[in-house]
Amino acid sequence: MLPIVFLAALAPGAQPAAEADLLVVNARIYATARAKPVSAMAVKDGRVLALGDAALRHAGPATKRLDLAGAAVFPSFIDSHAHMRGLGALLESRDLRHVKSVAEIAAYVKERAAAAPKGEWIVARNWDQTNWGGAFPSAKDLDSAAPDHPVFLSRVDGHAAWVNSLALKLAGIDDRTPDPPGGRIIRDAQGRATGVLIDRAMGLVRDKMPPPSHAQIKRQLELAARECARLGLAGVHDAGVSAGDLHAYRELLAEGRLPVRIYAMIGGAGPLWREYLGKGPEIGPYLTVRAIKLYADGALGSRGAALWQPYSDDKQNTGLLITPKEEIEKVAREAVQHGFQVCTHAIGDRANRIVLDAYAAALGGANDRRFRIEHAQVVSLPDFRLFREFSVIPAIQATHATSDMRWAEARLGPDRVAGAYAWKRFLALGIPVPNGSDFPVEEPNPFFGFYASITRQDREGNPPGGWMPDQKMSREEALESWTIHAAYAAFEEKIRGTLEPGKYADFIVLDRDILTVPPREILEARVRMHYIGGRLASGNP
Q1: Sign of CA dihedral 385, 240, 152, 150
Q2: Do the Cβ atoms of 223 and 88 come closer than 8 Å?
Q3: What is the pLDDT of residues 57-99, one digit of tens each?
Q4: Exposed / middle / buried, residue 188 (Cβ in 10 Å: 0-12, 13-18, 19+)
Q5: pLDDT in the model for residue 410
Q6: Are 434 and 80 in contact (CB under 8 A)?
Q7: I need a surface site. Which of 190, 204, 230, 310 has the fewest CB within 10 A?
Q8: What's the pLDDT score for residue 17?
Q9: How many Å apart are CA 127 and CA 334, to the nearest integer?
């Protein structure tokens, strides 16, 4: 059946068609992942007005015509889990994710220290010990590089920090300092603090660092937003914002400098959460605040993910629980009462079950609260059904699988890995699976995530056939995960996520058709133009 807008345009005696602001023609427009492409789209007042032949009826004297010469058009992508300020900070510094040695990172720290006033903190992120064999680095590796500057380097997953001895001293950490709840101070065989801090132990040092200025926050958020628009992201679910972040977002929005739509999750059950419980959700076209972000455990790469049984490669360690079940349940009940969504980070099988049980106590059964588990990386096989039973959304990041596959089975063993990064198990149960990158943990380019979703391979094409290939998504499923499923995860599927009439005209023009080109070519896909709300946000027409 034709949409109502089409019928109105075709019906005898109908009123003259509304004049479009923009008419896209001579294109391959994928309004949804599973619909046949159409050649034209009319846009008015920032929304899709009509598609196909019906769109042509809306051309008028003032209509701007965009002839795409056969180019592919898709709904803009939505990253359902990312960290905007973290990306902005990374764009201002060096990304350490591919550095292959401790010595190279120390040389970079030395270079930074030489240009900074004595006592200024040296901060960077994304080191990864699996790049040099798996051994954690130590404070002494940084001490000669920056003897007069405290150093704080975040691991690629954001759940561990590598600091120098001066930073340990400023934080009051010595060999007798106990592990904080939900954290671990890595120690050597003699019990001495090495300079690596896991999860909440990071806060012992972070609390001594000067807070970012308002100008710095605002600058970093704008840098990140412009980068997202350039890469084809019209929406980002910012996973854990502060009051300062929201203040900066509002200023950028008022100044016309926020090109992308932000779905903000309040960072933890602190004063900002209490404030919003009192006034209720904030919903707008470019800034929405109706969710809270909690942490159940740490990350698999730093062995902080909470598992039922010890790590296969660390027999004395079952990971860390950061937030107890009782606190998650308390927040979940508050959210139900006040109309908010809960989004809880859970990586390990124990953490996922604890969150599912806490949610179940507040939700009671099937519902439309759309509570989420962020990452849902390792799930016990019997627990997949609980996501459907309690209408819980697993917000996944496809590139985590292809980054972690080098060592995931060594951490988990062959039995547990069967429930790891298992997207198709969710889809087979009819559960929507929103996709994202978790940038700056992974790179923000969504086409890397699209490629990982359908191949389960790294960018060199390894392993042949893909890792755990039965969990590959089809291209249509992958496109849905980055568009309509991500919109659904933010209660926005009626206004975003596809290019159906009445929805926002958020669309990207690509230099190739990612639904038809060979998989390796997807990695080279580039956004020629990006329109958000019918306006050009990036590129040149």
Answers
A1: negative
A2: yes
A3: 999 999 999 999 999 999 999 999 999 999 999 999 889 999 9
A4: exposed
A5: 96
A6: yes
A7: 190
A8: 81
A9: 37
* Residue 263 near residue 284 (C-beta atoms within 8 A): no
| Predicted pLDDT at 541 | 87
The letter for the amino acid at 13 is G
Task: Write the CB contacts of 529 (distance below 8 Å, at least 6 apart in sequence).
Answer: 508, 509, 536, 538, 539, 540, 541
Residues 430, 392 contacting (CB under 8 angstroms): no
Q: Cα torsion for 422, 425, 430, 432, to the nearest 10°?
A: 0
Q: How many CB atoms lie within 10 A of CB 461?
A: 13
Name which of 401, 406, 441, 431 is nearest 419 in CA terms: 401
Tell me how far apart the alpha carbons of residues 143 and 30 are, in angstroms, rounded to a whole number.
55
Give the tokens for residue 306.
Answer: 């909470």
Cα dist. 473→3, 26, 487 in Å? Answer: 29, 30, 18
Question: pLDDT value at position 16?
Answer: 64
Percent of the chain with pLDDT over 70: 97
What residues does 420 pair with on adjacent strands? 378
> In the structure encoding, which two tokens stand for residue 95, read together?
């990304």
Bridge partners for 199 per DSSP: 183
Q: Report d(CA 538, CA 117) in Å as an integer.
A: 38
Going from the C-alpha of 50 to that of each of 14, 15, 203, the distances in angstroms are: 15, 15, 52
What secondary structure does DSSP assign to 474-492, as a single string? Answer: PHHHHHHHHTHHHHHTTT-
pTM: 0.92
Provide the token pair at 536. Answer: 């050009």
**3-class DSSP assignment, residue 263:** strand
Q: Give the distance from CA 417 to its chain's centroid.
A: 22
For residue 180, give every residue at least 6 positions away whose Cβ sits within 8 Å of its Cβ, in sequence order, or none: 200, 201, 203, 204
CA-CA distance, 541 to 530, in Å (whole number)? 9
Count other C-beta atoms under 10 Å from residue 254's C-beta: 9
User: For residue range 378-432, what is the model confidence (pLDDT) as tens digits?
Assistant: 999 999 999 999 999 999 999 999 999 999 999 999 999 999 999 999 999 999 9
C-alpha 521/C-alpha 137 separation (Å) is 37
Which stretch of DSSP H or E encloses residue 238? strand 233-241
The answer to whether the CB of 178 falls within 8 A of the CB of 215 is no
How far apart (Å, rounded) are the C-alpha atoms in residues 420 and 379? Answer: 6
pLDDT exceeds 90 at position 303? yes
Report how far residue 5's alpha carbon sits from residue 447's, in angstroms, rounded to the nearest whole number: 32
Q: pLDDT tens digits for 479-521?
A: 999 999 999 999 999 999 999 999 999 999 999 999 999 999 9
